[in-house]
Amino acid sequence: MSHSIEFQHIGKTFPGVRALNDINFKAESGKVMALLGENGAGKSTLLKIMSGDLPAYDGTILLDEKPITFDSPYHAITAGISVIYQERQVIPELSVMENLFVGELPTNRFGFVDKAKLREETSRIIDDFEVPFKPDDIVGGLSIANQQMIEIMKAYRRDPKVIAFDEPTAPLAESEIGILFKLILRLKDQGKTILYVSHRLSEIFEIADEIVVLKDGELAKTFKTTETDENELVRTMVGREIGDTYSTLERNGKFGDILLEVDNIVTPYVNNISFTLRKGEILGLAGLVGAGRTEVARAIFGADPVLSGEIRIEGKPVKFQKPKHAIDAGIALCPEDRKEQGLVLYRNITDNTCMPVFDKLTTGVFLDPAKETRLADEAVRKYSIKTPTTDKLVVELSGGNQQKVILGRWTSDEVTPKLLILDEPTKGIDVGTKAEIYQMICDFAKQGMGVILVSSELIEVINLADTIVVMCGGRVTGRLPRKEATEENVLALAMKTDAGEKM
Q1: How many Cα neighbours within 13 Å face the side chain of 282?
Q2: Whose CA is closest to 218, among 50, 378, 41?
Q3: What are the backbone angles phi and psi of residue 419, rounded to the nearest 5°?
Q4: What is the CATH T-level fold of the domain 4-238, as seen in this structure?
Q5: Averaging pLDDT over each range in 22-31, 76-85, 199-208, 390-399, which range is the top one?
Q6: What pLDDT does residue 292 have?
Q7: Residues 6+ apart with CB under 8 A from 202
Q8: Could you tell me the fold of the domain covering 245-330+417-503?
Q9: Can 4-238 and 245-330+417-503 be said to share one CATH topology?
Q10: For the segment 108-125, what is each residue's pLDDT rounded down to a tens digit?
Q11: ∠ CA 78-126-134 to the nearest 5 degrees?
Q12: How far apart are CA 363 and CA 369, in angstroms?
């Protein structure tokens, strides 16, 4: 049976912002329609309207040619609409199988949960997704990538008419993206209607049949994928040419003294990690999901305990018992999970931006609102954060704009870190802003800052890092200078099971 979802004159206004205005398009059965646009263009808002998460809006939505209205996401799900958001909505304390069937747990004739059936059904879905975890595994103990796969599996299990993916591949490795794309093609062949949001243009051309470009809350243009190219999409989306993003970067050509020495550190998650970082150098940590890159970053920042080995800053041994000690020593971290580790979602942009430097923003014993506002305004200007005011709650921003708030926090005039650790800094960031952030990373290095870059986009690490340390299974398996860092060389080291030489 064929399905369709049609948006007619959709509009949505938040206090001070017209987020969507007169959106009109139709997504049909058996096709993948991509939604493309800068951060804050309205993509996630449109999906939230469709899913019943934002019930008050202008215009009409037609599901299979019939008008629909939903009071809640539950009503949308029961009507056959599933949305997989950027922010994971798993229950960490429950098992994989309980998360997959939450609200619809199978019961036996006595009314108790039928765990045998639950485990059997979950195993079938796990086999379809080719993932490494088991039905009884507790979700909170899984990696972010595997938690994202569980979100996708939940939607898949419901067998919806319409399924929407909002940046589903951001935390996934290439192998997991391949599995996801095979499943999307299977859903397409089954006649599902698929909406797909991504900032990765290569994905759009691989998976989408049609592309809807939103700009500033309005429909800019609709394309057939076969009749456009990346340059045209970027021009439509951001209003200018981006060019060759990496070749135009103004890099730092001179490194200073050794800033950071990591000498055979062991944590509960990684073993015998060693490398050095010089002032003005960008060091990339590369590897597949589960390699231990984020865990190394957390250990340096004092978020995970170092069981043995030594970390030295400018030649002096340091033992950070908590992140506050690392911050005091001049280390800043933009974490991988912005929602749980990077932001206080129900505080405003000003509070989130100023948190690390409240002690510098006082007049007497009180915080100076003028100083706070100046710092927050600087972050909004520098990173083009789309907001009517810095009083806006961070939870109300798009995922990409939330990421910009974190970047603004650590790179203001009041914060001058010696070492900046960036874990997935462009996750959920549009192509235009990515180019700006790449240059900012290079500028940080030119200022003499040491930068550690972790990214699931291998091409990003290869083109930005001066030196790449490759990891596999919690160990270092190799080190490459940029001139030797091809995708083939990095991936070969990322799949080694033995540890490389000490560096």
Answers
A1: 27
A2: 41
A3: -130, 125
A4: Rossmann fold (3.40.50)
A5: 22-31
A6: 92
A7: none
A8: Rossmann fold (3.40.50)
A9: yes
A10: 888 899 999 999 999 999
A11: 115
A12: 9
For residue 306, the number of C-alpha atoms closer than 13 Å in the C-beta half-sphere is 26
Query: Above pLDDT 70, what percent of the chain?
Result: 97
State the pLDDT at residue 469.
97
Q: Which two tokens stand for residue 284?
A: 């990339």
The whole-chain average pLDDT of the chain stands at 89
Structure tokens belonging to residue 123: 């195993």
Q: How far apart are CA 451 and CA 391, in angstroms?
A: 31
Strands 17-28 and 4-14: antiparallel
Instruction: Read off the pTM.
Output: 0.69
* Residue appearing with tokens 């398009």: 25
Cα 263 from chain centroid? 30
* pLDDT tens-digit map of 33-48: 999 988 778 898 999 9
End-to-end CA distance of the chain: 59
Q: Decide if pLDDT at 358 tops 70.
A: yes
Is 296 within 8 Å of 474 (Cβ atoms)? Answer: no
DSSP, res 119: H
- Show the tokens assigned to 51: 């899913």
- What are the domain boundaries of the chain? 4-238, 245-330+417-503, 342-415
**Residue 421 pLDDT > 60:** yes
Tokens of 478: 């190799």
Is the CB of residue 476 less than 8 Å from the CB of residue 499?
yes
SS3 state at 160: coil
Half-sphere CA count of 417, side-chain side, radius 13 A: 28
Cα–Cα distance for residue pair 375/377, rounded to 1 Å:
5
DSSP for 342-357, written as a single string:
I--TTSBHHHHHHGGG
The position carrying tokens 């990496």 is: 246
Q: How confident is the model at residue 242 (pLDDT cuts 50, 70, 90)?
A: low
102/98 Cα distance (integer angstroms): 6
Distances (CA, A) of 258 to 261, 296, 418: 7, 18, 11
How many CA atoms lie less than 13 Å away from 87 in the CB half-sphere? 17
